[in-house]
Amino acid sequence: MTERTYFITTYGCQMNEHDSERLAGMFEAEGYNKASAPEGASVVLFNTCCIREKADTRLYGQLGHVKAMKDRRPEMKIVVGGCLAQKDQALIQQKAPYVDVVLGTHNLASLPRLLRESDDGPSFEILEQTEIFPSALPARRSSPWHAWVSISIGCNNACTFCIVPAVRGKEVSRRVGDIAQEVQGLVDDGVVEVTLLGQNVNSYGRDLDGSPLFAHLLRELDRIPGLERVRFTSPHPKDFKADTVAAMAECRSVCEHIHLPVQAGSDAVLKRMKRAYSRARYLEKLEMVRTAIPDVAVTTDIIVGFPGETEDEFQDTLSLVSEACYDAAYTFQYSSRPMTAAADLPDHLPKEVVQERFDRLTALQTDISLDRNRALVGSQHEVLVEGPSKKDVGKLTGRTRSNKLVHFDNDGSPTGSLRTVEITVGHPHFLEGRPVGEVSEPPATGARLTLPMVAASTGCSSCA
Ligand code: SAM
Ligand code: SF4
Q: Which of 196, 307, 337, 386 could bridge 163 with an S-S bond, Cβ 3.0-4.6 Å?
């Protein structure tokens, strides 16, 4: 029998990376092997994102490219999944009729069935509600020592710029016991670091019996021996409260890093965005976390050029960035999205104005990041070794607990081990260092293909 292979291209956020690992797990459970390139693969899958318009354009460009491959090898299958598929099923059908399978964000589990059905013609399925949590599906993790763990899906907020609620649906949380059981299984497999995923991790549990809090979940996971690092993304500033800060400060495994998306520094813009906090309230929360965890690293998301943004309002963003003194910021140019309230607001800004503001913002943040990283020179940090550096094969690369990328002299430290590194140089986006002390052993790693332990249905919220 000829080998069946798959190739996945992932666009967008960590949620999509998590979902792609599940899609890969399902392919492998069905007997497919991973291909190193789309050319020659039996199935090519695009896991799409629609958060900004650029992602749409990129997908159709890529589809044109794989169509040429399919013309040469008609047996090859093309699958489109993810947020764009959820939003645009009909458009994909119309623009790319050669696509074999379309599946949305709520029905990843249907992939094997839809692939089989596509033997008889295109097989498209979009559901409005999730039936099975993606975390209950098999996973083929890209790293033996790190895993994404989704704690909730969907979002109940209504930020006026954001398409996520329209394509990912209402927020549904997983039970604490299910999450802890998954994390325990991952640790048994050699995972030492998990990143908990939710659109708003701080509203976690409100839909579950007993309304367990996110802080409670952090404390439960902290009891798992062998789990060295817990990260999470993202907390919404309006719901980020003292109990989470206390859990972060008190739990050994919770890393000293918080990603707290601010989006804008002007109260008027925050109001138009419906973010439900003011600049002052946001800064108070930052102060609260920095007081409790003095060496915490803080990162954020910022949108430039929201409809109607004046130069004065943009200046408020610049001054907030200076005041907040972020370690890093993910900066985005506003992109008008269908199914969002902001799309209908007046005064969308010309591209040149947005670009010019964007350049000023990134220049300011680059200076701040450089200052913060230079201040670390001489300090020692625990680094989780990720392997050889892509910049310099003579070096190893890894991340500090504060999520900073460090390239350091290769002393043979094994991938997945924790190494103490002294910082020697600070750059805006990474650090250089040298290892100090003894090389430690990596954790014993098991298979990267994990099979589901929990048949979690999103319908039941009992036994939290
Ligand atoms: N749930 C997260 C939160 O509330 O912070 C954000 C999730 S979203 C996938 C990631 C980031 O994309 C947002 O924080 C925002 O900065 C950016 N983003 C979302 N919609 C956007 C739009 N229409 N234009 C530009 N950036 C956008
Ligand atoms: Fe989008 Fe706001 Fe929900 Fe984040 S909290 S996913 S920005 S609607």
A: 337
